[in-house]
Amino acid sequence: MELIRSQLLAELPHGFTTRAGGASAAPFNSLNFGDLVGDDPAAVAENWRQLGEATGLGFARVRQVHGAKVVVGAGPTTPCGEADGVVSATAGVAACVAVADCVPILLARPDGSAVAAVHAGWRGTLERIAAEGVRALAAGGDGEAPLAVIGPSIGPCCYEVSDDLAARFAAAFGRRVIQQGVRGPRLDLWAANERALRDAGVVRVAVLRRCTACEPRLFFSHRRDGGRTGRMVGFIAPISARGPSLTEAGYHLEFPRS
Ligand SMILES: [Zn+2]
Fold it and tell me: Distance, CA 177 to ligand 1 centroid (Å)?
């Protein structure tokens, strides 16, 4: 299993999965976490089991619907409730979203007491779900702005969009989020979500700048693979004085830093 991590969240159990490792056969090879993409359910269950074993975490998930709702995770569950962001304040329980080109955003209070994972496709990005995640995390906190990491997703190098969609994004986030390619406009979802986070008061934002469409060895890409492909997950768990320490939770892995 190859996970991608961010230095900004180094103190917290977190990661973005890649397609490396896992039990799924082509075209879902091989670490697919998508339940609804046509993969063998036994292989998907095995992949979840492996991730749980590798990290020592349970995963709070939601049924993603390209909206802008963020909910508090009930615990390690199969997807329950329709939302595109989930909050966890329970040590050992990771907030988790699934993606294959859409933007996974991980958020954490600086003291590590609560975290959130957000799924932002173009619809969620336009609706500023990143800001919803910040708001959901602020509830009950000390008011300090969260840390944010924008994970692997389709980049401005590859994400061609219609003139109409480009115009909507330019109006919402500024012209900087659009690049003019030879075949038409390309959208920078990283810059748009970073803008949404900064407008919501987040100061420390890391953008990993890894394009899922550019790296077929490491990432599933919905657009590159013509819709028939697997899903990766972004996950993050809080740390708590009352909860188990990272070591006690079995979190010993050395992940590649980025
Ligand atoms: Zn690319």
Answer: 15
Specify the amino acid at residue 221.
S
Ligand 1 centroid, distance to 86 Cα (angstroms): 27
Please check the confidence at residue 245 and state whether its pLDDT lies above 50: no
93-99 and 58-60 strand pairing? parallel
What is the fold of 3-152+202-236? CNF1/YfiH-like putative cysteine hydrolases (3.60.140)
C-alpha 224 to ligand 1 mean position (Å):
10
**How many CA atoms are closer than 13 Å to the CA of 149, on its beta-carbon side?**
27
Domain ranges of the chain: 3-152+202-236
- What is the distance in A from the centroid of ligand 1 to the CA of 209? 9
pTM: 0.92
The answer to whether residue 136 scores a pLDDT higher than 50 is: yes
